[in-house]
Structures are given as structure tokens and as C-alpha cells.
Amino acid sequence: MWNLDKIIVKGRKKLNGEISVQGAKNSVLPILVATLLVDGISVIHNCPYLSDVDATVKILRYLGCVVKREGHTITVDSTNIKKFDVPDNLMREMRSSIVFLGGIMGRMGKAVLSTPGGCEIGLRPIDLHLSAMEQFGATITTENGFIDCSAKEKGLVGTRIILSFPSVGATENIILTATLAKGVTIISNAAREPEIKDMADFLNSCGAKIHGAGESTITIEGVRSLCGAEHTVIPDRIVASTYMIATAMTGGTICLKDIVPSHIGPIIQPLRESGCHISVDGRNVVLASPTHLKRIRMIRTMPHPGFPTDVQAQMMALTSIAEGTSVFIENIFESRFKHIGELIRFGAKINTEGRMAVVEGVKSLNGANVKATDLRGGSAMILAGLCADGITELSEIHHIDRGYEEPEKVLGVLGADIKRVNNYETTKN
Ligand code: UD1
Fold first, then answer.
1. Which is it for strands 230-232 and 41-45: parallel, antiparallel or unpaired?
2. Where are the extended beta strands (E) located within 259-405?
3. So what's the pLDDT on residue 116?
4. How do 325-329 and 356-360 pair as beta strands?
5. For this structure, is 65 an active site residue?
6. pTM for the whole thing?
7. In this structure, what DSSP letter does residue 58 have?
8. Which of 60, 179, 262, 418 is in the most buried spot, having the most CB atoms within 10 Å?
9. What whole-number distance in Å separates Cα of residue 49 and Cα of residue 220?
10. What is the pLDDT of residues 28-65, one digit of tens each?
11. For a substitution probing ligand 1, which of 149, 165, 189, 310 has the most ligand atoms within 8 Å of its CB?
12. Is 392 within 8 Å of 368 (Cβ atoms)?
């Protein structure tokens, strides 16, 4: 089935109001994978309705887990896992399925997965993941697009792993593998994203011994087994950032309730530079827009706590209507500028040179027929549509459904004129 839903936006409505933010996609996926290590039942709260979550659940069920969803709570019983392979069609449903490597290895000592390949935003190699598995003592063979990873007779043994780049997925895979391995694992130059700490917090509540998650050095003392626990997924900092930027672009005021303000620290400074007023009160953050947005001198995407690559496209949409010239350098993914061609259809003035984009702000955008090129690029199209004159028709929104739970409803609550048109469904041959 090929989803041909569209989102239609009638622009120039100010967004105003108060919202809660969904659970973090980049937390819920590795946490669901981490339930594979548990000998028993895990109860995970605040799981958003996203196609990537559905894809993760399908793989868990294939492996032998009993998974139930009641509203935003997913219960996983991993007592009877029987399989260690993930079929190619399930792997392909979600790029981040590579994190199953650590989950399955940790539990079964053997994993067979298809290689993820590139995607909309770049090549996405997995050399760091595979080299880490070898350092635990696993043997890896790759043939016909499949990776076969097996622990040797003495099992997986804790080790010191120095990452040449603080990869989020590799850090998660190492933690997952190390949790039940023999001995101690130390990760140097680990990724520091909040979602890594969230996964480690879940595993620790199950009996794991992970210290330093969220910092550059993480130490994992292997334990014999984990028992089930309950966990609530953190709010999604990328979704929170997206709705803040949407509000800034339409000239409104938004209150995000019950988020973790430090998680959005890296986007607060550039938003202030653009003229937005941002105040933090406990777990609530209020953004009030200026009359005119100003340019942001330079945005360089970096690993956390630098500016997140997952907010680059949305911030570029904002600067396309800000007074002056803004410069973006994309340091994380080599092909993460596909949204630019679509922004230009709205009348944005953007030039690129390799990993650099130069945005000359224009007075206003015009509604356009555009497509979501990828998840975050797609959300940037919605933002452009919200502030543009006239109607925007956005197709290929299955990308957006990977990471945003009912964005049209959330934005509708804030006053946007936006709807999903879902009578275009057809069968793909
Ligand atoms: C995660 C996030 C994604 C975010 C990204 C960077 C999830 C599910 N996804 O993706 O939303 O955009 O972090 O913040 O959490 N690299 C290698 N070799 C490897 C692994 C990575 O060279 O073995 C490179 C990648 O090509 C890329 C960079 O490292 O240039 C960052 O990738 P990584 O941090 O691994 O991102 P993901 O975990 O895939």
C-alpha cells in the first residue's frame, strides 16, 4: 500500500496557544529495542503514534516478543525470543533498524540483518557499529547485502571502544551489547544526545549498570540478566523545536508544557538571535515572536550539545523569511539539503556550495505544490506553508508520519488552517 495522503495548508494564520509535546521518536525506538534484553515484561509510556514505532513493533513481534499497545503505552514481553534475524523487508521499513544489531546480539549472541544502505539524507555507513561488535569479540561476515554477526565461544566480552565520531546509533548499539556482556565496557567519545541517557535510564531501571550516559565517557558493567520495568519516554526535543519555529514564522506565541528545557538549549540561542523572546519556567517554555524576524548569522550542525542536524531544515525555513543573510553549514549528513529545492518553490532565495547554504531572507513566501523530501525536510515544508500567502499542497507525507504524531491536529489546535486529505490511497504494484 502506498500512502498518497497530502497535507493542505492555507497560510498566514498566527499560531498561538499551549501544547504538550509527544514522546521522543529517537528515544522510543532504541528503548523498544532495549526491551529485547529483558527477561520479562517492559512497560513503556509516552510512545507516540508514528510509522517508525509501528515498524519497530513489527520487528519485535517477528523476533518472538508479545507486544501490546494501549494508547501511548506499549507493553513488551520478551520472555520467549526465538529468532535472531530481521528480514530485509522489515529492516527496510525504518532506517534506524540498525540499532537491532546491539539488541539482538546482546540477547542472543548472534544477529543476521540486512545492510541498511543509504537514505534520503546521506550514505549512512555502519562501520563504527560493526567495528564495535568485533571489539566485543564477535565475528562478522557480510554477504549478499546481509550482515551475519556471531559471538565466539567465550561470548561477548566487555572492552574499551574509542569512537572516531560520536555516532548516536553506534553508541546505542554498544550500550545494548555491553549490558549483558562479560566484564566492563568503556566508550570514549560517546554521543551525548539526551535520547541515549533515556535508553540507559530505562536499562538501569531493569538492573543494568550503565554510568555516564549523556556524557562523553560511558562505562557499562555487564550484568547477568535484566528484569522488567516501567519507563516514560522523554518529550521530543526536535518536535518541540519544530513547533517553536512554526510559531516564530507566523508571528504568534506558544507555550510548550512539560518539556525538558535543557534539551532544546542548542536552538534557544539562534531563535533569540532571530529576535524571538524565550522564557523558561520550570518545565514550561514560552516563545513570543518579534514583529520582524532577523537573520541568524551562522548555523553549524554538530553532535549534541551543538545545533541538531534534525532542526537544520526547519531553521532554514525560518531564515528564508528573516531580514538579512543567514549561513548554514551541515556537518553531520552529506546530503541533507534536499529540502532547499522545495523551499525555492515557495520563493525562498537559497544558494548552496557543498555543505554550505546561504539564505537571503525574502519579505514573504508564496504557497506552492511541494513534496516532503525526508522527515525533517518535510516538516520544514509545513512551516513554509504556514507563513506563505495562499495554499500549499504537500505530498509524500509518509516521511513526516515517521516522526510527527498528527502534526495537522497539533497545529490546528494552535490556530493553523491545515488538513490532511486522505482519499488518495491506492495500491502500489
Ligand atoms: C541519529 C538520529 C537522527 C539524527 C542523527 C544525528 C535516531 C533514530 N536517529 O541517527 O535523527 O539525525 O542521530 O544526530 O536516533 N557515521 C559513520 N559511521 C557509522 C555511523 C555513523 O560514519 O558507523 C556517520 C554518519 O554517516 C553521519 C554521522 O556519523 O555522518 C552521524 O550519524 P549517527 O550519529 O550515527 O546518526 P544516527 O544514529 O544514524
1. parallel
2. 277-281, 284-288, 298-300, 325-329, 349-353, 356-360, 369-371, 391-395
3. 73
4. antiparallel
5. no
6. 0.96
7. H
8. 179
9. 31
10. 999 999 999 999 999 999 999 999 999 999 999 999 99
11. 165
12. yes
